[in-house]
Write a structure and sequence with these properties.
5-stranded antiparallel β-sheet, alpha+beta, 6-stranded antiparallel β-sheet, single chain
């Protein structure tokens, strides 16, 4: 049977705060999967990911990346794995590399990846996140799972810039956008 390509329509139209300082946009066609090692296979899984993709899985909450790949530790022995421009087939590619060492669950359609950036990005996010987002506490490569305006998201700092990326549940993207527009307007 032929494999059918998936296409998720854009769920988050670009947003810019009147007066500047805050931009938000969806990063489309991102492949997403949750990776969880099988019992007593965590070390072997780390080796398989390193050999297969050239990146080390983060051992603490945080994000490691290589080229178009991101591995974000979201909890004990659990990672959200992203591939830019990899919506079609990423979970299968990941599963092929890890074999029986881990469970791989495709999350491509479950989340919308949003990038929020600009001089006001941290101040606006801080209105809805109960974590210290100061660069000394949440620097480049940091990641967390938390509620933003009562919506559970995964978010991370991809670099030292004034930028954050979030994986927002697709069914809550409208509520998240409403919160962002409201929080960003004042």
């Amino acid at each position: 049977m032929a494999e059918t390509a998936l296409f998720w329509p854009e769920a988050f139209a670009p947003f810019e705060r009147p007066g500047g300082g805050l931009q938000a946009r969806e990063i489309v066609l991102t492949g997403m999967a949750v990776l969880t090692p099988r019992r007593d296979a965590a070390e072997a899984l780390e080796t398989a990911i390193n050999l297969g993709f050239g990146v080390a899985l983060p051992r603490e909450l945080g994000c490691s990346s290589h080229a178009a790949l991101r591995f974000i530790k979201t909890g004990p022995e659990t990672w959200l794995c992203l591939k830019d421009q990899g919506a079609d087939g990423w979970a299968a590619e990941l599963k092929a590399k890890v074999g029986d060492l881990a469970s791989v669950t495709d999350q491509t359609g479950a989340y919308v990846r949003v990038r929020i950036e600009g001089a006001l990005a941290r101040a606006v996010l801080q209105k809805g996140v109960f974590l210290d987002l100061d660069p000394s506490a949440f620097g480049s490569g940091a990641a967390a799972t938390a509620a933003v305006a009562h919506i559970n998201v995964v978010f991370w700092r991809p670099s030292a810039e004034n930028a954050y990326e979030l994986a927002v549940p697709r069914s809550y993207i409208g509520a998240f956008r409403h919160w962002l527009e409201t929080a960003g307007s004042v």
